[in-house]
Amino acid sequence: MISPEFLFSNIPQKQSAYFFSVIRKIGKEKTIKKGETIIRFGSHPSFFFYIVSGACKTSIRKNDKAYILGFTFEGDVDCCPTSLWKGLANNFAIEAVTDTKILVCQLKDFQQVCSEKKYYTITQNILANYISILENRVIEALSLTAEERYQQLLLQQPQLIDKIPLSQIAAYLGITQERLSRIRRKIKI
């Protein structure tokens, strides 16, 4: 859920380049098939991952119903911060919605490679970005229509949005597929 725009805009360019050099150094490349889970609900993952290509979704299950909290795309970093930094069981799952290639980075490896100062600066920025994304999603869910939220999703990743099943986009927006189809027709006009 961490966008590269945040890393580039809130970490000095030199430090951002350093961050990406470290994850390329320690990251283990892994190919995830569409529908495969990267992080399971209730697990204690000790890693974060960088999406080289593809897209993922973050979802929860409540009362036997799945809710999609958001999508992450190529160039994003994703993880479960409460599990990663606090050791708590995570309360959501992350799954590939397209065939996806990721770099899996163990937090302990990241910590060993970085100086203490760089480690804390980068992780603070990651956590601040994560909070910012969650705040924006709550604000958008309360203040924007489904059509406006869909348009934002289109602006975010126009080339990948067509690869995400419409049922998942509709679930994320909290609307039916039929309503999403009407919105899509309206926007194309």
From TrEMBL:
UniProt domain Cyclic nucleotide-binding: residue ranges: 7-113
SUPFAM superfamilies per record: cAMP-binding domain-like
Entry superkingdom: Bacteria
CDD domains linked: CAP_ED (cd00038)
Pfam assignment, any one: cNMP_binding
Gene3D superfamilies, per database record: Jelly Rolls (2.60.120.10)
Protein name (database record): CRP-like cAMP-binding protein
Organism: Sediminibacterium goheungense
